[in-house]
Specification:
Order of helices and strands: HHHHHEEEEEH
Oligomer: single chain
Number of strands: 5
Radius of gyration: 28 Å
Distance between the termini: 106 Å
Strand order of the largest sheet: 4-3-2-1-5
Shape: elongated
Helix content: 55-70%
Length: 197
């Protein structure tokens, strides 16, 4: 028994597996670091723009989304690879994860719909922070545009959170064209032709 523990050939598979696990974890961290660095560079390039600029809003929102998505993709893949190196049968684990993913997918349909609609809304560039909008029965100023939610401040001060997936039809009163009506009081004895341009 003691001789088998002291035999270097007995430890070779353990050391090889340990090195592979360390390499897998190092690669996962490297991929996440590269994604974080690239998205941070993208977001930093637009930080000098105004907060209401569409490019800055798009970069901030999508940069955070890309970083989160990378973590949710890279860590499960790395975990499965590590479990495979340890010697666990990952076939049953993948089948269970597939069924669980299907169940979560059905339960999260609304969330997925909101995220996809929010991404399309950002890329269509139809709504910006500071715009006066009417969405459904809500009229107010857009305070924040996220991937999942749009926050609109009504004139009475109420902050309304509207899921992006619920937006089917909306009006943007700040886009491309505006009309301003300014009432000007005149006395009856003033010359109207002299006042009008």
């Amino acid at each position: 028994m003691l001789e088998s523990l002291l035999d270097p050939t007995a430890w070779r598979p353990v050391l090889t597996g340990g090195v592979r696990i360390v390499v897998i974890l190092a690669l996962a961290l490297a991929v996440l670091r590269v994604v974080r660095r690239l998205t941070n560079q993208w977001m930093t390039r637009v930080q000098e723009l105004e907060k209401t600029d569409a490019r800055r809003q798009r970069a901030d929102t999508l940069g955070n989304l890309i970083q989160s998505t990378a973590q949710y993709v890279v860590w499960p893949i790395a975990t499965i690879m590590v479990l495979s190196e340890v010697g666990l049968d990952i076939g049953a684990l993948l089948a269970t994860a597939g069924v669980a993913g299907l169940a979560v997918g059905f339960g999260a349909q609304t969330l997925v719909k909101d995220v996809i609609s929010g991404v399309f809304l950002l890329f269509d560039d139809l709504i910006h922070v500071g715009d006066l909008v009417s969405i459904g029965g809500t009229v107010g100023t857009v305070e924040e545009i996220g991937v999942r939610l749009i926050k609109v401040r009504k004139f009475d001060g109420e902050l309304v959170m509207i899921p992006a997936g619920d937006i089917r039809t909306f009006g943007n009163k700040s886009m491309d064209w505006a009309r301003v009506v300014v009432p000007v009081g005149l006395s009856y004895d003033q010359d109207v032709d002299a006042i009008l341009p």
